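[SOLVED] Need 3D model of a two-part complex

Original post:
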Amino acid sequence: MEERFYRILDKYEKGDGNIISLLQDIQAEFGYIPEEAVYWFSERLDLPPSKFYGVATFYAQFHLKPRGKNIISVCCGTACHVKGGTKIAERLQKDLGLSSFDETTPDRRFTLEVVRCVGACSLAPVVIVNNKVHSEMTVESTSRLIKKLVKEE
Amino acid sequence: MGEENLRKVIVRVCIGTGGLAAGGKEVIEAFKKAINEFCVDVELDFTCHYQKVGCRGFCARDVLVDVVDRGKSVTYQSIKPEMAKRIVVDHIINGKPVEEWLIDDSYYAFHEKQVKILLKDCGTIDPEDIQAYIDVGGYSGIKKVLSEMTPEAVIEEIKASGLRGRGGAGFPTGVKWEAGRRQPGDTKYIICNADEGDPGAFMDRSIIEGNPHSVIEGMLIAGYAVGSREGYVYIRAEYPHAVERLKLAISQARERGYLGKRIMGYDFDFDIKIKLGAGAFVCGEETALIASIEGQRGMPRAKPPFPVQSGLWGKPTVINNVETLSNIPYIIRNGAAWYASVGTEKSRGTKVFALTGKVKNTGLIEVPMGIRLGEIIYDIGGGIVGDKKFKAVQTGGPSGGCIPASLLDTPVDYESLAKVGSIIGSGGMVVLDETDCMVNIAKFFLEFTQAESCGKCVPCRIGTKRLLEILDRITKGRGREGDIELLEKLSNDVKLASLCGLGQTAPNPVLSTIKFFRDEYEAHIRDKKCPAKVCKDLLTFYIIEEFCKGCGACLRACPAGAITGEKKKPHRINPELCIKCGACYDVCKFDAVRKD
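Solution:
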């Protein structure tokens, strides 16, 4: 792991010295921000860990816990909301047995998240599974899609 | 036969936001495959060229495909990969277009009242090829500026065009540039704000994806006018395609000498860096955006000093929105008078809107300022889906308001929309019908702003929380007498006392829905009823026996096991188990499931 940290540190020192960029690099490498990464970089860069956590918890993009193998994002922006996006999210939460949105199943196979607008409003409501946008979804079609995904796993 | 003797066929496919999601890339592949299959047996008398273009606007009919052959261009709508083969055989090989898949009258109606300045090139040129932009006059604006205009003359030209900031506030662009130019110092920055965070808006994304070079050229011209050598594009990480296209465009512009040192041989240096946002709505606010580029938590600070005085790294900084910058090359190329001839006296030019929600023709539209709301919804949008009743149009996202049917002849310009309690904002336009609950809509926006409040100032942090709590209890049947007045008072306090635009406008959705739909609030509070039948705590679901055919669709759809009944006999919903998700209501084909 340390080797991977050094690679990121090298990039950081040659780059613009920006904590957001650093955290984005860490997350690109590990899929989330591991606790040990925060302390490792904190020491090397002589910046308090609170500075890292301050930034990481401010922006929605950063995750402090490992995420699932499959990421299911349900858009609940305005257009998707009025066309039933929120209903889809509620149903998926139930189907995946999660207690809230933005959670990962214990086996880390699925992460469900609710996002606020991905800019595909004319195709509302949309569900994004592993970066592929599925348009004009219903509760039924989403359920089918996820069941298929579970089977393929 | 030599290739030069072959007929040239062009297949043009939309790979904008909508086109990609609807399968644009797969459609191109399907065309390639279909044509390759033919090559095996027959020698083709044509060569096929594939053009990928950005958003063409009519996203409701994606994937849109043009076939240009034998001097004629026709457009197909709603094309899926499996339809490619027939178009290749019937149209390209046998010369007979597939009539039933061609665009219909609604396509023409959708475009009739639009005036396309920005979107004209957006849907016709290949965004991944700089030459395509140059061929339609691209980069001639910066050439004109460098060869024959002083920075002051450029500023005068932009002032004369009447262009105002398209990010929402509507501040005159030329005046902002002039203030930037007047600042002392050698180091100044131009920032392109592409942090399009308003839910329901995707204009900036579509412009960057469809015509990225117009934004780069706009930044170059801004840089020259203001006296800046360095620009940043702050763009949402949620827009991966836009980021990729922009990166490609910047590298192509560098290769051709439009970015870098001594641009086009003139004494002017300018380069652009991309900064990815990390998902915070408040970073659309100028001072928060600057903090974010500097790597900090994106929290706004008090103004003055304004960014134009002290911005990025404490240097004078001019921040313009994507659409604003994209307008610049067209204004320089065609002249301020040409631009100012479109629109109204105080709001010149065109505005791009994302028309979504319950209208038939959803998509990206560009209209002259001053067009009536009703023309957008009924003439361009084709009216309401399922011919339901129009209820309101929400403009300006979480900072805007809802405009009711009685005000549909309001002209769309900065002042007129402000007068009816809404704003143009960045350009989201979400149409609501009779099945939408206005209290729920207000609550939806407050959930958003409350979650996105940065927490720095108390009125916004706590005010939005309290507003949301009151709205929440109203939608759950626990509203109290006096809640409406409390919402109004609190809203006005939050507006007055908040530090930045987020808090100052967050109560707008509440105030405008109370203003125009007070009766809906009263029904929730006094009668514990939701007239639009949306707020599920105020509803009960039941099945009307004589309508129920016993098909079992609802039973299978129910995730709570609340429905019982034998095959071909009326089913029943157990209210104790019902979670009111509405799944049964949505699947019933016989109108037997009711909610009240």
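Edit: Chain B has 24 helices and 17 strands.
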